[in-house]
Amino acid sequence: MKRANRIPNFRGWHAWVLHRPSAAIDPLPRQLERLGMTVDRYWPDLPDQNDASANLSVKPVDILFFDADMGMDEQFPWPSDAAPMPTVALIGSEAPGRLEWVLSRQSGAHLQKPVSSAGVFSSAVLAVHAFEQQQKLRAEISELRRRLKLRPVVARVLMTVMRSHNIDEHGALRAIRAEAMKKQQTIEDYCAAIVASGRGGPGDATTIVTN
C-alpha cells in the first residue's frame, strides 16, 4: 500500500532559528544537527534572501524555528501569511495575545519551551506537511481565480459557436468541451487561445465541430 504522505528526510536541510540566546532552546540546534541539518541562529532579525544588497553568503533556508514569546512581524522579511518555508513556533508563554500572534504567522507546528530533544523531529515533519498543504491550496485558489477571469472569454466563444452553428447554449458548450479535450486543455484555455488567434469574432467558429 502506497503512503499518502511521505516523511521527509532532513539530511542536507538548512534550518534557521530565530530566537534570542537562551538555555531554553539550546537542545534545539543540537537535535536538528543530529537529524542531518545545518543550523544558523539569528536575533533579532532574519536576513532577506531577496535583497540584492544582502550577504550573498547566506545559505538558502528549508525550515524556520522562531520565538513565539518575543517575536514581532517586523523581524520577518515577508508578510505574515506568506512564509516561503515551513515554520515552527517556539512557545513558552500561553498568553492569549502571544498565541493570537502565532496563529497570524500561520505556523505549521510548535515546540514547547524549554525545548528538549523529544518532539523536534515530529514538529519538523508536521510543519513541512502543513506548508505543503498550504502551497497546494494556494495554487488551487490561484488557478480557480485565473479560470474565473477567463469566463468572459468563454462566453464570447460560446456565443460565436451558437450563432455560427445555430445551436443552443448546451450544444455549443458540449462542442467547445469536446474540442478542448482533444487538445488536452481546459475550456478556459482553449477559448482564450481561439480569441488570441483572432478566431473569436462573430461568425468565425468553423474550427469547432458540432454534432
UniProtKB/TrEMBL annotation:
Signal sequence extent: none
Source taxon at top rank: Bacteria
GO function term, MF aspect, one: RNA binding
InterPro entries: AmiR_N, ANTAR, CheY-like_superfamily, Sig_transdc_resp-reg_antiterm, WH-like_DNA-bd_sf
Stored PROSITE patterns: ANTAR (PS50921)
Domain ANTAR residue range list: 134-195
Protein name listed in UniProt: ANTAR domain-containing protein
